[in-house]
Structure formats: C-alpha cells, structure tokens
Amino acid sequence: MTLLQIDLETYSSIDLKTCGVHRYVEAPDFEILLFGFAFDDDPVQVIDLTDFQSVPKDVMDALRMDVTKTAFNAAFERTAIAKHFGITCDPSQWMCTAVWALTLGLPGSLEGVAKALKIDAQKDARGKALIKYFSVPCRPSKVNGQRTRNHPYHDPEKWQQYIEYNRQDVVVERDVRRQLERFPVPESEWKLWALDQRINDRGVRIDREFVNQAITCAKQYSERLMIEAKELTGLENPNSDAQLKGWLKENGLEVESLAKDYMPALLDAAPNEEAFRALELRQEMGKTSNSKYDAMARCICDDDRVRGILQFCGANRTWRWAGRNVQMHNLPKNEIDDLARARETLRSGDYELLEILYGAPPFILSQLVRTGLIPSPGHRFIVADFAAIEGRVISWLADESWKLEVFRTHGKIYEATAAQMFGVSFETIVKGHENYKYRPFGKVGELACGFGGGVSALEKMDKKKEIPKDQYDRLVKQWRDANPKIRKLWYSAEEAALEAVRSKTTVKLAHGVRYRYSSGVLFADLPSGHSLAYPSPEIKQDSKFNKDGLTFRAPDKSGKMIAQRTWGGTLVENLVQAIARDCLAESLMRLDAHGYEIVLHVHDEAIADAPIGWGSVEEMTEIMSQPIDWAPGLPLQAAGFECDFYQKD
C-alpha cells in the first residue's frame, strides 16, 4: 500500500490555537507556505509555494485519489489542503498518527511522542521561533507603516531554516509512524475516525445574535461589579489579589488566598459589612467567566457553524472523545424549567428583565450555554442518550445478576440499589412511603462506589447533602455488600493486570476482556476489538497497602511521560468507560448509516440535525438500544427528545 506522508507550514491572521483550523483557513490571507512530503521510503521533498513552485502532479493525483495520506494531526492537513487547493479530502483516505499515538497512551504532540518513543530523529527545536516569525502576524508594535507579517525575503537565512524544519518534521513523523506500526489500530476504528472527521467538518450551527447578547450581558454585569468594588474599597483594581489582600488586612482580615475554595470560610470570618461585601463582589466577579460564549464567538465560521470541537481519543486512557475550543463536555445541568423564555429574554437584549426573573446573570448565563447551539434552518435537533450506561456496563462486566435484571426491566437502579442495601421491599421506595428516605442513599452510593470509591467519593457525589457524614462509612460497606461481584471485579482486574506484567503473558478477565503484555506495554483488550494501553508497566511495592501495585507511564500536562500508580477500581473504571464509549461509537456508525446527520455528541449522548418531518426520537432511540454483537447480554436502553435549541431534558 502506497503511503503519502505530509506536513505543512501555513500562514493565517486567525489564531489557530484559540479559533480552530476551520476558522483559521477562512481568513482571506490563509495560505500554505511549505508543503513537505514523502511517498513511502522516498527522500523527503519540500515544495516552497511562496516561490511559485508547484506541488508535483503525482502528489496532486494522490491527494485526489484513493491513496492513503498520513499526517500528525491529519485534521489540520486535510482541512488546509482542501481549502488551499479547492479539492475534497475524504477522511476515509487519511490516517492520523497523532490519534494513533493517543491510542497507545502517548503524548498528543509530535515532540512528545518522538521523545517517548526515543526515535533517532527528533523535532527541530528552532520550530517555535520560526513558526512565530513566518506563520503568525507580527506583533501590533510593528504595524502603523511597518510590516504586519514576515515574508521569506525579509530573512532568507531563517526561511531556509524553516524549509529544513518542515523537512525534518516529515522525517520525524514518518519515523514515529514506523514505530507505531508495531501496534496497529483496528480498521473499524479508522472508519470511526473518518466518521468523526465528517462530524467535525459538518459542525454545529451557532445562534450568533444570542451569543453576542450573552457576551454583552456578562460584560455589563462585570463592569457594574467593578464600579461598586472600586467605590467600596477605593482600590484601583479590586481584582488584584495583592491590592485586595492589603485592603482586607487594613479592615481586620488576614487573607492567605482568595481562591474560590477559600471564599466560604473568608465570608464567615469577615469582620464587618464592608469586608463581607468586598469578598462577595470578588466571588461574584469570579463567576462572570464568559469563556464558553467567547469561544463560540471566536470559532464561529462564516456560515454560523463551529467545527472541529471534538477530539477523537482525546481521553486516551479510555479512548473517549474530548472537547476542543468550544468545550461542551463540562456544562452544568439545566435547573430551570422555562429555558425558552430565559433564552428569548437574553436574545432580545433585555438584561434588566433577565436579572429580575432569574437573578444575577452568571447563573442564568451558565444555564443557557447549551442553547447557543441551534439546528440548521428547516431542521430540529433530535437528542438521544443511553440510560445509566456505566451502571449497565459494570453490571454486565461483573455479572451482577440482580442489577442486570433491574436494567432489563424497570430500570429504577437507585431505588433497587437502596432496597438491596437496606433489605427493604423495592415497591416501598416511592414518594409518600417512609422507605423513600433510602433512595438518596441508593443514588449517591451508586454514583460514588462503583469504581471502589470511599468516603471522599461519597462526599463529592452527595451534592445535596442528603446523607449525614457520620453515615458515609456505613454506606460504603452497605453498597459493597449489596454488589459483591462488582467488588470482586476490582480485585480480579488488578490481579489479572499484575499477572500479565509479572509473567509477560495474557490473562483473561471477563466478557472478552483480557490483559496482555506485549513489547513493553500492558494492553487491556476490549470485546469491541481494540485495546487500552498502559506503557512501561512495572510492579512496585505499594507502601500504602503493603502489597504489590501496578505503575505505568503516562503524559503529564506538559506531555512528559511520568510514572502513575493504578489499582483495580481505576482499571475497572477505565474498562467501563471504554466499553461505554464503544457502545456510543457503535450507535454513531448505525445512526450515520440510517441517514442521521450527527453534529455533536457529548459523553453518552448523540445530537442529530434532522430535517423537520424526517426521522424521529423513536427511531433514534431504537437504533441506540439495539443489541451489540460483541456485547451479548448487555442491556442497552436509550431515551430522547426533540428541541429547537440544544438543552438537557
């Protein structure tokens, strides 16, 4: 099979990092500067498009034909080439080595992967400075009669270095790919990645007017708070930690930190009304973050859509998707019933009425973030998601039969768990009955304890503080006693992983899951056909529990591979989340085959942009609830609704 390795250097006045590649290539001044490539093992060539060189005919033919193209972060190369040359770049003809690296638990940057794999060729360290010089606009200080960007003729020596940098990137990317070839990604996953690329290319429509009103509302509220804070404290900048700490000290309150976690205690300790109000204002100003709306405004394309906001295998421990730029994966639950009214009030620009109806803007603005996403004209959203998917998967994986029966029948897992924990009749855990008091115990226990969580996990999940703290220890024991097979699964998974590393062998766990040691990597083979990776696994003494424990290497925030310790509960969590991800992946492929145009998916939820009069909630949920061949006996159930703007049901 012929492979064409590609790496580009480009220019655009739009910031790639904050706006995304689809917005980046829409800039009128976008262009490809250097086109580095190599067929198979051929020498690397670099075409200087600024010097009127032409991309060779065989390369252009390969770009248009069914020849496999590969790049590190191929979404960038695909999108840039399609724009620059005005051609279609079918993702099914491409392969992304960045995604390939993520599947193996490696860093997401080329430099990080090259170092982790210890390949001979390394990324040119001069790259960042050269990119800054040639590929981004000059700083504002160079405007006003001076140049706004640097061209090759401004520094021919640097330009030659940039050409060699581009050449070296192709060399490094090809060497990385050769190393990764020892661990092939299943063909089914490349097909899924191609679907992912089509979803990202399609994007989702944004209500531009609504977003602009939200940004203006937040700005005006912040200005009001700042004016009051200045008048109260007399400070030039009440948002300055140093200035506000000094003012509070003068008013009788020594402050170590103004971080939000400290605020409740500081408010309790405020010595007077002025200090209390100053802290309140600081706390409120911290809530006015407008990052989601700002991201929508930055990334919105000319046709009012945002694209490229899903990262395939972004959570590389479980292969789940992660959010990019417009981050839709960590939004608060909708807590108001009249979203449509609140949305229209904000969209009309009546901020005063909005505040009268819903209180301070930060709350209602956070509630309305989802509603900034709207269907295409003549369409509506159909939203469908799996019910209690992680609970279903862990019960199936552990063969916890009583739970599986719940999921196959009424599905009321919180009530059933409470009944199992407290030895009361399931039928009595209903509103109005004395035993309904046990339901919160079942719910919090179910959310907190499935992956070995203890008291701290319970405290985190008990958001409404419905359970006395002195009952947390007892609740953990009751949940574990009610779920003996799940508890056993934690220890079975840990022992299987340890034995696979210890004996450099393969150890079966359950339902097609097995731990396998190969070439310095511990793999967790999943029933769907792909494998989670734990690089450089070692067995080391766990001093906390005085027993052997498992460590592996994973990238930290900087991309450096560092040792991490894991145990059975976390291993099971990885398995469950990965299998749940695979269930969603199966559904996305099925929905696409049925003609549903998915524009977004978040956790276990799929959002289709469907023409009015075509498709239905019933059909989408039926497709998602169908059995999966590789997971016989796993009881899936989906629910859904239609809406005119994105929301949580």
Automatic annotation (TrEMBL):
Broad EC category: transferase
UniProt-listed Enzyme Commission number(s): 2.7.7.7
Signal peptide boundaries: none
Domain annotation DNA-directed DNA polymerase family A palm: ranges: 366-614
Catalytic activity from the UniProt record: DNA(n) + a 2'-deoxyribonucleoside 5'-triphosphate = DNA(n+1) + diphosphate
The protein, known as: DNA-directed DNA polymerase
GO annotation terms (biological process): DNA-templated DNA replication; double-strand break repair
GO molecular function, one term: DNA-directed DNA polymerase activity
